[in-house]
Specification:
This protein is of the alpha+beta class and 362 residues long. The protein is built from eleven helices and ten strands. Helix 5 runs antiparallel to helix 7 and helix 8 crosses helix 9.
Length: 362
């Protein structure tokens, strides 16, 4: 069946220019639909050249204004990804209503070998944008764009996570090299550890082989650099006059630290990654943490695929780790059972709505 070529009129957006931007490092493909023309036009802009993008939109808007007798509004969209949110703020400052789409929420062809090109993706985003402005429910999920102050404040948390992973990787590599040759490991994270290692001998009374020792010294130097950066990050002073968004995040972090077993690092991470948002109900909380169920119901098939595991990966990982730590270190507190489904879950004060849960004493 051939698809119709007549475009669907959009209520209250008939005189609107729709723009879909397919981003890449080399080239931006701009797909546009203008009310003065029936066809969809495509234009290529060098990647990152926002001046050329705004100039292109201005040319199309001026051309449409001459045909329509009035200046049309411009609505744009692009998928969240590598380029972050600076382009969103640029377009909004230029008077263009922009939407950042969640790429995983856009409907695509379900064939076994789906054709994927920038041209097709641009048209799909453009149709999705039009459907969203028509008011079609659940056609796409819109990403909530954080403020520049909040986006900058969360860098400390993410840098700490990255440095912690690097510290673990360097430590494990040193341990593996020593175990490979039958040496004791000791405490590689100590600054004087190399002096201690110089006195170690294997079962033959030999020291660490020279090439292995050279590699271990390089790994230890990188490990010390990572630990130095972690210490400097921990000593970063708070701003004397923080922005309102940053001050609000600090207040929420202090409230979380009042809960038992929540330290400053975890409370700050949870605040920056999760509680900068306001959740309306527990379904939104579960969905953001990737804990929402994924049923598969079709015809006579009815099975559960488990939790979705979508949402904020960093916030979910930290919260699950904290839940297991609290459960293992505080056995006297018990666990929680759901009153309706009788499902036992780990106790964690911060995510679950306890109105439907009851404490089960040990």
């Amino acid at each position: 069946m051939q698809a119709p070529t007549v475009s669907t009129p959009i209520t209250d957006h008939i005189s609107t220019i729709f723009v879909a931007i397919e981003l890449s490092q080399k080239t931006w493909l701009v797909t546009m639909h203008s009310p003065d023309r029936d066809k969809i036009s495509r234009h290529k802009v060098p990647g990152g050249d926002h001046a050329s993008l705004l100039a292109l939109i201005d040319r199309v808007r001026d051309r449409a204004a001459r045909r329509l007798g009035a200046v049309p509004a411009v609505v744009s969209c692009y998928e969240a990804g590598y380029d972050g949110f600076w382009l969103h703020r640029l377009l909004m400052a230029a008077g263009i209503a922009n939407y950042v789409f969640d790429p995983s929420s856009i409907a695509v062809d379900q064939r076994a070998r789906r054709v994927k090109t920038d041209r097709i993706d641009g048209e799909t985003m453009l149709r999705t944008l039009m459907a969203y402005l028509r008011g079609e429910p659940r056609v796409v999920r819109i990403v909530r764009v954080p403020t520049p102050e909040h986006e900058d404040a969360r860098r400390d948390t993410r840098e700490r996570d990255r440095l912690t992973k690097e510290q673990t990787a360097h430590t494990n590599r040193i341990k593996a090299l020593l175990r490979l040759h039958g040496f004791a490991v000791g405490q590689p994270r100590r600054r004087d550890w190399l002096s201690w290692l110089a006195g170690q001998r294997d079962w033959q009374g030999q020291g660490v082989p020279p090439r292995v020792l050279s590699e271990i010294e390089n790994e230890h130097a990188r490990l010390m650099l990572v630990r130095k950066q972690l210490d400097a990050l921990a000593r970063t002073p708070a701003a004397a006059d923080p922005a309102p968004a940053v001050a609000e995040m600090a207040r929420r972090s202090e409230l979380l630290q009042r809960l038992k077993s929540l330290g400053p690092a975890f409370a700050t991470t949870l605040t920056q990654e999760v509680f900068y948002k306001d959740f309306r109900n527990r379904r939104e909380v579960a969905s953001y943490f990737g804990l929402a169920p994924s049923p598969w119901q079709s015809g006579g098939t009815d099975r559960d695929q488990g939790i979705s595991k979508a949402g904020n990966g960093s916030g979910s990982a930290h919260s699950m780790y904290q839940a297991t730590q609290e459960h293992s270190s505080d056995q006297s507190s018990g666990s929680f059972d759901c009153k309706n489904c009788k499902t036992n879950v780990l106790k964690w004060s911060g995510v679950y709505d306890y109105s439907r849960w009851t404490l089960v004493p040990k």
